[in-house]
Amino acid sequence: MIYIGFLAELLLNISQLFMVLILYRFIVGKYKVHYLIEDILISLLFGIVGLVLDDSYLILFLFMFLIKEAVENHSLKFNLEKAITMVSVLIVQEFIYFCAMYVSRLIVSFVFKPVNLNELGNHDVVLVLTTNVIDIITSFILIHLINDQKNKIDELFYKIENFNVRKQIFILILALFLSYQFIFGISNFQKVTAKIQLSIILTFTLFTALVIYQVILFLKTYTMRQENIDEKKRNAQLNEYLISVEQQYDELRKFKHDYKNMLLSLGSLVENDNKDQFKNYYQDLVNQDIVSTELKGGLIAQTDKIMNDPLRGLIIQKYFSAQNKSIQLELEVSDDQFKIDHDRIPIIRIIGILLDNAIEYTVDTDNKQITCAFVKTQNTIEISVENIVDEGFGLSRMNEFGYTTKGTNHGNGLTNIRNIIQQHDNLFFEKSLNKNKLVMTLLITEE
């Protein structure tokens, strides 16, 4: 055991927690300049607490973080996605810090050549500064790697949310974090040497990595299985849809075949100036099924304009979901080749939530029509979902956490959208209400 002084320990605690906050804010996409002062104050406060609680101050920090999230959500429940991110960052930062401390100890020992650990402790400030430098360099390398893998990280969170295993994942990584704290606490209490402590930490980290790998492998396997099931379902629905369109086309062809005879009949009535019979005959034509039937083949033509397969599949899937509930979903696409080049996973998540909300609300209304529009300008993409709402619809209350018009156990859709928007600087969300028409719009700007 190396005993370091009061000032060195305070500096170590502050820098460690400050790097935790930087990593966390970078991952959730909320690192702005005004957060810098807040992070410094939080690090200073808990750094002082760490002088009393030792490494356990991180447990207190996590507990206060979860309370803060619950208060901001106006609920006893906190955001599991943010909680998973914070606990993961704490685990990674603790491992980086421990390895940095061990490497800095080797460097200081090589430079100053101390006779024993007590003499090494005399260089505690140099030891801490070296540890901080290694920690900062390693953390920024990690930030660069995270930035390169941002889409894969978003995809992983999407799978966790889609399979509804966020609670299980949170419990798993929380147990890993507490296990790390237990190992550090017991090692310090028993005055275990650094080499033995390093061996224990590396062994436990290897075990942790294997567990995480198994979880990711399970999610990938389950995803592939679910995608195959969904693809078969979409193919069956699409086949049914194409059969319906083909039947309507046959009816239209038959109508076209008889069109000439109809015109001849009308012509003879005009020549004979028989207005009453002309009106009756005209009304009979209007009442024909082929004339009054609305051809639905337009949706296929519109979806063909969408160049992103997952997005096109989502629209077709939601179309059939709406059709099964007697709801008409209309699609409008501005460009012949509409393509989204970045942030596709969060965009698909948001569109899915908006369409689900519109479908579930429209089921109980008289006007069963939803319009989904894709509009692309030079630097902006607008994706909007429009549906009719009842009188007295509370647009202002939609900002409240858990507010829903769909009954109990819903109401988290808009909260999830807000969380996704906060993590991406190029995504914006607008909502408007005009003459009972509710329009929810996702704006995508160039990064």
Descriptive report:
The protein has 447 residues and is of the alpha+beta class. The chain has 2 domains: 6-192, no CATH class; 296-447, Histidine kinase-like ATPase, C-terminal domain (Heat Shock Protein 90). It contains 15 helices and 5 strands. A 5-stranded mixed beta sheet has the order 1-2-3-5-4. Helix 14 (344-362) links the parallel strand 1 (328-333) and strand 2. Helix 14 (344-362) packs antiparallel against helix 15. The longest helix has 78 residues, at 194-271. The protein is elongated and about 120 Å long. The model is unreliable at 290-296 and 405-411 (pLDDT under 50). Pfam families: HATPase_c_5.
Quick summary:
This protein is of the alpha+beta class.
Give the overall average pLDDT: 77
Tell me the fraction of residues in β-strands, as a range.
Answer: 5-15%
Give the spatial strand order of the biggest sheet. 1-2-3-5-4
Low-confidence stretches: 290-296, 405-411
Compressed to H and E, one letter per element, the order equals HHHHHHHHHHHHHEHEEHEE
Query: In angstroms, what is the radius of gyration?
Result: 31 Å
| Proportion in helices | 55-70%
Domain count: the total is 2
Number of strands: 5
Task: Count the DSSP helices.
Answer: 15
| Helical/strand content category | alpha+beta
Please give the largest β-sheet: 5 strands, mixed
Shape: elongated
